[in-house]
């Protein structure tokens, strides 16, 4: 069923975390915008709001202040992220509100990030940079990416974009989703795909089924030459298990954009590992990404006012958008 604004309701509360969405005020028309950056401000702004935009998708403020008294008139919650784990808490999931995400904005940038990590590992880029800083000329042989086998967990738009780019450079890609479909392996087939995987790429949503999916047992199925790339969510990996495997030479390397705790603590041993590439949760953040997020939200806001179907409606039981783009 479409969700739409009532006659007297056109109030959007924006949880912004200190940085307002660029251009939202001019693009939202006659919408009344309320801005909040803290839990207290959010609690004050929510009563009477029918829409909540969680621009600061790293904040737990929505969960902390949620109550039926504050959210009685709320009809729609939108998060400026692809993942919804910050807002998919039981009280919101049980409430009669529609939840949407920003699926589609990050697909190509994240795919390029993964391709870049693969190339960096194959061409030993980190070592070259170290030798350059030391003014050392050290000839080495590197790997080719063509013919390497990649298992990508997450068969939504991001996973498909990753598969497209990696296939284009000659890699053999297997997509893994919640259930089997055309060109997609079911999640329970994953153990059988790991032993010949040169790369394991995680681009899955964080759900009860995927949380902690990479652990000592999973790693034991991978060959020692394998590298793990995580652009999904940090808790997809049991970080201590991965750290130990990397330290002991059980895996060849890892490129990690997300972590169990963010920012990654300064005393984490991952920082000092030469076979680890670390980035601060930025794989999808390219020039103009915030403008694209605003455009998506405003498009949905127009649909909401007109009583049309919203884009990117999250299936609350599955924890991700389950239509228009294949399995996840």
From TrEMBL:
Domain D-isomer specific 2-hydroxyacid dehydrogenase catalytic: 34-314
Keywords: NAD, Oxidoreductase
Listed InterPro entries: D-isomer_2_OHA_DH_cat_dom, D-isomer_DH_NAD-bd, NAD(P)-bd_dom_sf
Gene3D superfamilies, sorted: NAD(P)-binding Rossmann-like Domain
Keyword set includes Calcium: no
Superkingdom: Bacteria
Keyword Oxidoreductase: yes
A Pfam family of this chain: 2-Hacid_dh_C
Residue ranges constituting the D-isomer specific 2-hydroxyacid dehydrogenase NAD-binding domain according to the UniProt record: 116-283
Membrane spanning stretches: none
Family statement drawn from the similarity comment of this UniProt entry: Belongs to the D-isomer specific 2-hydroxyacid dehydrogenase family.
Name of the protein in question: Phosphoglycerate dehydrogenase-like enzyme
Species of origin: Pseudonocardia parietis
